[in-house]
Design goal:
Elements lengths: L3 E4 L17 E2 L8 H15 L2 E4 L6 H14 L4 E4 L5 H14 L6 H12 L3 E6 L12 H6 L7 E6 L3 E4 L14 E6 L5 H10 L4 E4 L6 H5 L4 E7 L3 H9 L4 E2 L6 E2 L40
Parallel strand pairs: 1-2, 1-3, 3-4, 8-9
Antiparallel strand pairs: 5-6, 5-10, 6-7, 8-10, 11-12
Helix pairs in contact: 1-2, 3-4
Length: 298
């Protein structure tokens, strides 16, 4: 069976992007289940899939993170990877779906888990906010705080890859990707006109989709008056090419092949080998070729 990809809420399990997207494992009540049941459930997942990658939002309740670490420790398992990127909830849901797409390919669990870090570089995640008075995830200057109290004020905020904040008005813009992407939009208690009518054209998106707003978004952004958005690469062939083109190394502790300098499963630092491909995943304005074949999982 392919490596399992888990999320901590049903609203983070986006619909499949294509017919090969693996279903997400939802651990929505992991902190409320009896500990014995949580241990048994995760052990069953490991027995079925071999390895489990849990993608968890930094806005998730602290009890969720504590329970995940407790279960992993009690199971004494290096086959559970806990991945908490600094992405807003919608961006995290998009990343989890990309990992679910890649789970159907011939990528080992260590490479698949490492791919999460790589693919975050190709996401642009932000929101249209009606207030920034409680926004503490990115820097907000005193002027923007003061303008938040003015009726009708709105702000365009980019949280990733580089924090950026602009007050919505004539000429307001946020830096976008330099390659072709789709845009996913989740509406909260705010109209999405600026996102769909101004931001999307300025980013030259090739497709636009809508999704319900994740429950953790209001906590992450500090307000329910928002529209969250994330640009992403939708095609499995492109995602696979990015991951497969990066040099792999072997973790000296658990023996998994990984990309990058740290194993996501056991946290061991990985020595960089001199063998293998030297190519780094890269996208030009048109993205990589869509013609590279995507090999199926054995």
């Amino acid at each position: 069976m392919p490596t399992a990809i888990a999320v901590t809420g049903a609203d983070l399990a986006l619909p499949p992007q294509d017919e090969r997207t693996m279903p997400a494992v939802v651990l929505g009540d992991i902190d409320r289940r009896p500990l014995e049941q949580a241990l048994a459930d995760l052990q069953m997942l490991i027995d079925q899939h071999g390895h489990l990658i849990v993608v968890c939002s930094q806005a998730a309740p602290a009890a969720v993170e504590r329970r995940l670490h407790t279960v992993r420790s009690l199971l004494e398992s290096d086959r559970i990877a806990l991945f908490r990127p600094s992405l807003p909830p919608l961006g995290l849901a998009v990343l989890a779906r990309q990992l679910r797409q890649l789970a159907s390919c011939d990528l080992g669990p260590g490479v698949l888990a490492s791919a999460g870090r790589l693919l975050t570089h190709y996401l642009h995640a932000g929101a249209l906010l009606g207030s920034v008075t409680r926004l503490d995830r990115i820097p907000v200057d005193l002027t923007s705080h003061a303008r938040s109290w003015m009726p009708g004020s709105q702000f365009g905020v980019l949280a990733h890859p580089e924090p950026r904040l602009v007050r919505i008005g004539a000429g307001a813009a946020l830096p976008g990707p330099e390659f072709a992407t789709w845009l996913l939009v989740a509406r909260g208690q705010l109209q999405a006109d600026w996102v769909t009518g101004t931001l999307a054209p300025s980013w030259n998106v090739t497709g636009l989709r809508e999704s319900p707003l994740p429950a953790e978004s209001s906590r992450w952004w500090g307000t329910g008056r928002l529209v969250e958005f994330c640009s992403y690469l939708p095609d499995l062939s492109v995602l696979y090419q990015l991951v497969a083109s990066v040099r792999q190394n072997t973790c000296h502790w658990c023996g998994l092949d990984v990309i990058g300098d740290r194993c996501v499963f056991c946290s061991a630092t990985v020595a960089q080998s001199l063998s293998g491909s030297e190519h780094s995943g890269h996208l030009g304005p048109e993205g990589p070729s869509h013609h590279q074949s995507v090999r199926a999982s054995a």
